[in-house]
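User: quick one - fold this with glutamine bound?
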Amino acid sequence: MNELLNKLVENNKNLTIDGKVAKYIPALGKADPNELGICVADIEGNIYTAGDYNKKFTIQSISKTISLMLAIIDNGIEYVFDRVGMEPTGDAFNSIIKLEIVSPSRPLNPMINAGAIAVSSMIKGNSTDEKFKRLLNFFRKISGNENLGINEEVYLSEKETGDRNRSMAYFMREAGIFTGNVDEILDVYFKQCSIEVDCIDIAKIGLFLANGGRLPSTREQIAGENIARIVKTFMVTCGMYNASGEFAINVGIPAKSGVGGGIMASVPHRMGIGAYGPALDDKGNSIGGCGILKDLSRNFNLSIF
Ligand code: GLN
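Assistant: Sure. Structure tokens for the protein plus glutamine:
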């Protein structure tokens, strides 16, 4: 298996030439566009790796799957989906347009920035610090990595430049989607996006979802089976932004990408996959990561459809 993964990394390396690292968060612009890595964590407990699988990157939008689970655990399904919808947008992940033209005004789903900011506002805690600590502990538990923490430089870089997210947050507060201090709500969101991971960490998150919200090692049920199902469904319909339809046809695996270059994928009852390559396509998905996932899916017949 490791040999096959090595081959897939090699075969897809040339794709990275056509991608670009995200620059709108200045600190992300420092990533090396040639990097490409993969990890498969299967339900039997095997871990297979290749390429730059141990390079650290920020989790970015992949965090939206995890904050959604905690927000549902904290508030219940009804509360969350009264405020955030369940439909794909067909727009870019940071688009603001539908907030105004959809009535009543609410973000269309929790995988786009507006929806994820609303979800982060629902995490329980007496202070911003406590909210983020609870979220970070939840990340640590699910990934089995007690050492997860944030990349301070990326966090500060996004905090300083994230005016589009800031404007969406103000818009949503005005529309009554949440109340409270916008900067504090965004602080939780920016911090969760800046959590540093490698391919193994996100493969394990994918495995946790593949295993119905149970830790594969201890069988501890951390999120209800129904919550894991909801998250995997969002990954299919909205996880790859406005390329989700194409990805579902070409790869057919629930997946969530982030502009740090990560893709977390979950093959129900079988495995979690973590891919990393910071060179992104024009939709903001790792170009090499998508290539590897497509090949992997064909090789092992992983499409759920
Ligand atoms: N932190 C990033 C943002 O809000 C996450 C976006 C992403 O990974 N697509 O813009």
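One thing worth noting: The pocket of glutamine is lined by residues 60-61, 93-94, 113, 158, 165, 193, 258-259, 284 (CB under 6 Å).
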